[in-house]
Amino acid sequence: MDEVDLLYQEMILDHNKNPRNFGELEDATHKAVGHNPLCGDHIEIFLKVKDGKVEDVKFKGVGCAISKASASIMTTVLKGKTLDEVKNLFEKFHNVLTSKPDEPVNTEELGKLAVFAGVREFPVRVKCATLAWHTLIEAIEKKDSVLTVE
Ligand code: ZN
Predict the structure, then answer these.
(1) What span, in angstroms and rounded, lies between the C-alpha atoms of 102 and 119?
(2) Of 2, 5, 36, 103, whose CB is crowded by the most CB atoms within 10 A?
(3) What distance in angstroms lies between residue 65's CA and the mean position of ligand 1's atoms?
(4) Ligand 1 centre from 50 Cα, in Å?
(5) How many Å lie between the centroid of ligand 1 and the Cα of residue 69?
(6) Over the stretch 101-139, which tens digit does the pLDDT of each residue have?
(7) Ligand 1: centre distance to CA 129 (Å)
C-alpha cells in the first residue's frame, strides 16, 4: 500500500472534514496548546475533569488531516474514562505508532485509534498523529501550558 492508502482512510478523511467536539470548552478545568513545527500543526485541547474522570473534552486548531482527525477521534473515545485509563490508552497508542512496521499490532485494545496504525510506516507523520495526545497529557499534568513537540 502507498502512503495515501495507509494514511488517508475513510475515517480519517471524515474526521478531518467534520471534526467532532470542535471548539472551546467554557468551563474547562485543564487546557494546553500543542505545536508540531515540522508540519505546522497547532492544536488546543480543553478538558473538563470531574471526580477523576473526563466529563468533557474539546479541541480547536489547524493542521494536516492526520493531526486534526487524530484530535477529533481522540475526543470521541475519552469521555467517562479516568485519567489513569486515558494515560494507559495513550501509552498503547504511542507504543503502536512507534513500533516497527512488521511488529504485530493489537488493534482490539486500540479500538477506533487502530485506524492510525499505518502511520508508523511514516515516522514524520507520527508526531502529527500523537500531537493531540501529547497535548492532552500535558493538560492533565500541568494546567494551562504550551507544548512544542520536536
Ligand atoms: Zn501534521
Answers:
(1) 13
(2) 36
(3) 7
(4) 31
(5) 10
(6) 888 888 788 989 999 988 998 888 999 999 999 999 999
(7) 7
Q: Does 5 score more than 80 pLDDT?
A: no
- Ligand 1 center–CA 101 separation, angstroms: 20
State yes or no: pLDDT of 47 exceeds 90.
Answer: yes
Distance 60 CA to ligand 1 centre (A): 14
Q: What average pLDDT does the segment 23-41 reach? A: 95
Q: What's the pLDDT at 3?
A: 65
> Residue 64 in contact with residue 41, Cβ under 8 Å?
yes
Phi and psi of 115, rounded to 5°? -60, -20
Residue predicted with more confidence, 6 or 82: 82
